[in-house]
Amino acid sequence: MAFRGGAAPFRSSDGLSTRQVGNSDEIQLRIDPMHADLDDEIIGLTSQVRRLKNVAQEINSEAKLQSDFVDQLVRHQLNLL
C-alpha cells in the first residue's frame, strides 16, 4: 500500500490509529478503548505535537536566517555595480 510522502500512517500498539481524510490538514483518530490507556496515548500525542511545533519553529527560523543572508548578498552585489 502506498502512502503519501512515502510514510506509513501512525499506528499505536495501544489501540489508536489514523487514516487520511479529504483535507491534508486533517486527521481522524480511531480509538479502541478496550485496548488502550487513553491518558498515556494523549500524553504521547501531545508530546509529539509539541516536538513537531518546535521543529517547525526551528525550520522557520532557519529559513528566515537564510533569506536574510541572501538579501544581504544581493544588496552587496548591487552595491558593487
Automatic annotation (TrEMBL):
Transmembrane segments: none annotated. It is found in: Golgi apparatus membrane. It is a single-pass membrane protein. Residues 14-24 have a biased composition (Polar residues). GO terms for cellular component: Golgi membrane. Coiled coil: none annotated. Keywords: Membrane, Transmembrane, Transmembrane helix, Transport. It comes from the Eukaryota. Residues 1-24 are annotated as: Disordered. PANTHER family: GOLGI SNARE BET1-RELATED (PTHR12791). This is Bet1-like protein. It comes from Chenopodium quinoa.
